[in-house]
């Protein structure tokens, strides 16, 4: 297997900026990219769950990616999420990602029809990964959304035989035992990107060195501080920052979760991401007032 | 609300014929349609779960529908399934269904992002139904696939206020109490299409007069006999035929479920539907031998 | 296997009468038994889920059963539920049931530690059934409460080899396909007692001839009418009565389910069953007022 | 609220020694207690899930506790698990624990009938905790076994108002965000005992200072090393030991889980705990051979 540059640090799962009518607001991406650079974030994961990929057309996903690659100007890594229940669409998106100049590709498992075995999942991903053969391919494991609960360690080991550019997994699941297992599999041959922001210290304690998250978009310093403290073995500080993260996540859960609540926070910090497409409910005016107040209470705006 | 012609009898959820390489085999649809006519089936439900809609592109779904409408020549009803996690795609498919001459449209709930309330589900469906305003719109309720478990009765009652062409529900769920409730809601204002073939007598006992199913494709007489016996109050006969149905369903479950196993049976009865697209695993040669034997054992080919 | 008298008709799952302080109010059982006789009910299922068996001590369960056997005076069948997570307690209860003169015994599966296979479940039940060797033994299948989802058909077939007095199953689950399968297994060798009152017509349509339920306690005529209409092939009438049943079940669900809401209804019809033991919450005074009103609205008290 | 001595370090959830016929082998407890002392373990949690409490009679639970208190001779803390679906049994066990000289009591939530709200859970526990008023009371939260998923933070805060001796929670759940939240609740007013051995570093990273686990019984040094390394901020070492723990847990999962597999390991290390009571299946002779081999492969016996 080729030796890909290891991903380190924080990768923000980006929101998809939208106009009030739901059309994509491409123009925001330039400002958003500058915000990423200023934040110290190492990369972005484009059109994933946070980016509402299932609510976007294939054409929109392509254009959004193109805008990100262009706006990044090599200042941070751009990973294209190319997952879809439709394998053929996924292959097209993967090829497009390679042509566009994305740094890597990732894909969630199909969730309507679920692969019955690791073998079926490998079969599903194989042409997808092969369509971007020079890029690292990451399996985006998120059973809470897909209902697919196959062994990730088995997938990595067997998948490696058929998918040469399989680099690792974005692990968004609370089975931290399995996560630890994957990190140490084959002497650390695979990259395991931590996926649950609210327990980043746990993933780092187990050996993860990178994370993909949505709250990194608007609270980057909290997580950069966690990373730094953990590197220095300063658990007390890491824990204190993690508690700030937990407070933030409690707020977004109150407002319908990371996509709906997170997008609203993006608007509050000045990156105009607009609202979500249905079936995620519109964010009401009064909710913004209440959200602002809740964020103030947890010291989100500083003290 | 307009008074739509009530749907009665059996509606076959069609398989999508494919070539060995996975491309759509449109030419089979003509023969398939004749088979439907010969079977005494009243209608087809095109590109639903059985038709692997999540594995098809929007363009493919349009073309498949066009072939069905053309092949039907008014001899049976053609209901277009237009569901998608992507509301905009769904709206396009709905408009296309109306333009193409479909008899009705149906849509499953979005399942990746799940509507948090009945209100959100109505909001999601509203423009979809409005894109085919002259056609009856059916909500395709199937929590086992979508994970969406909202109250169907509430959806029908509240949805009717905003979706004038809401005709009823394709009810594919084992909560028969709720199903009975929906049948009798507002003095029977809504059509409730029974969705689980293996318990058709149960739905009919509760008052359903129509069913949508995948095994109707290859065992129509079993179900027509159930319908007839139930109409005549001949429970013993109905039950005997239902047991035949249960035996068939046990076989398809053994082969991976109604889509995978059912498509293989279609091939055996001479309608060349081919295999499934991934992530549904390919059907192996030896499996066909075994399947043939299992079908023989349950008397599928007659005695 | 011995040929046991087939159970036919309705079996009421009895509530356990309690004083305000939670002590068992044994004296009520005599009146309760007369109510059963007057209702036309064929039997009682004592200390099952409805009887709050997990909240009772072994000694209380014994005494309650003794009171029921004595009060029945052979006028209806008394089935003792002897299930427990603790096999040794279960064996004692089973032996006691035989000594006390119960007509049959039944047992739910252990649910904290779950049997990993049908074989383990058989192993668990074997000494329990053997402790009452002359009585029919029923497996009480209720996955929604136990989380045990083993194949019931397999259990019946394999269990019969080791448990000579295995008579059948109280089937309280919405997998009606499996229920139909069990009814017709080995040419009807097993008794399958329908367990969900709100869909009794479905079970009867599939061939069941007996049911065990909690709402039979206070709405016996509704179910006797369903049984009669189904026997006569009068589906329209059966359905109409089933809809009355569904309305009743909707009410008890509103009040916390069949045990909590049902016990309150018993009090309203004059059988002083009192409240439930914790963790089932006490029934408040205002709830009784509201319940009375809800029951009036659905015509529970006649028209 | 009284200021209880904070629990620190490792608490072993003890297995219940049994003879081949399933009777309790009380005589082993003395040797077992010495093993605990030699191991450097701070306490034991008696008759919890690991101790098969649901398979034991109330009388057995009392006697087992008495043996442990006696054998401990004050050399380690003895926490009595007094949980039961039956509140009255639970109260008796709690009173007995206090009389016997246990250091603390803990209780799992009732799982057959599930408390519908935090308020109901508090109502259920209140008399249980009050029966041992001088001892710290721990809520044993384990949704995977009970199906009870109420907010633990809410329980702690509201429960404290009614249960003066509520000390904290044994947190056996993978919602580490909630666990972190509980640790920091009210400035650390509650003790949060980490419950999943295979992710101890995660709990410690979040601020836990104690853990209750079953693998501590036979791999104490692995966990003592984790505790020590984490205290010193030596994450690399902690992680390496945690990986040893994960390997052990993978083995016990292979053999049916922590109770079945763990009890077999106890026999291998010379503490004769025997087999489990049904419904946990007996451990076969060949399984012991295989287990021995698997343990050797992961270096369980040293290198």
UniProtKB/TrEMBL annotation, chains A, B, C, D:
The keyword Cytoplasm applies. One of its GO terms (cellular component) is cytoplasm. SUPFAM superfamilies: Aldolase (SSF51569). Gene3D superfamilies: Aldolase class I (3.20.20.70). Pyruvate binds at residues 50, 212. Its main location: cytoplasm. Its EC number is 4.1.3.3. This is N-acetylneuraminate lyase. It comes from Proteiniphilum saccharofermentans. The lineage of its organism: Bacteria, Pseudomonadati, Bacteroidota, Bacteroidia, Bacteroidales.
């Amino acid at each position: 297997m080729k030796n890909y540059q290891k991903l380190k640090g924080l990768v923000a799962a980006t929101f998809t900026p939208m106009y009030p009518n739901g059309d994509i607001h491409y123009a925001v991406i330039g400002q958003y990219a500058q915000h990423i650079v200023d934040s110290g974030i190492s990369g972005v994961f484009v059109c994933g769950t946070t980016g509402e990929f299932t609510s976007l057309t294939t054409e929109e996903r392509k254009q959004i990616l193109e805008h990100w690659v262009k706006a990044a100007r090599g200042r941070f890594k751009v990973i294209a999420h190319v997952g879809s229940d439709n394998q053929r669409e996924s292959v097209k998106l993967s090829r497009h990602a390679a042509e566009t100049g994305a740094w890597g590709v990732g894909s969630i498992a199909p969730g309507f029809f679920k692969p019955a075995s690791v073998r079926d999942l490998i079969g599903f991903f194989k042409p997808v990964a092969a369509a971007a053969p020079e890029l690292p391919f990451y399996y985006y494991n998120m059973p809470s959304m897909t209902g697919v609960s196959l062994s990730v360690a088995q997938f990595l080991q067997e998948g490696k035989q058929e998918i040469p550019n399989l680099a690792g997994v974005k692990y968004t699941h609370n089975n931290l035992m399995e996560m630890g297992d994957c990190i140490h599999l084959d002497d650390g041959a695979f990259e395991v990107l931590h996926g649950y922001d609210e327990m980043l210290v746990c993933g780092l304690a187990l050996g993860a060195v990178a994370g993909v998250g949505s709250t990194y978009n608007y609270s980057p310093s909290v997580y950069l501080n966690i990373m730094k403290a953990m590197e220095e073995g300063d658990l007390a500080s890491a824990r204190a920052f993690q508690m700030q993260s937990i407070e933030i996540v409690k707020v977004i859960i109150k407002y319908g979760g990371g996509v709906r609540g997170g997008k609203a926070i993006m608007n509050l910090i000045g990156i105009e991401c607009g609202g979500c497409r249905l079936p995620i409910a519109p964010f009401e005016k009064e909710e913004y007032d209440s959200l602002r107040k809740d964020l103030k209470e947890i010291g989100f705006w500083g003290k």
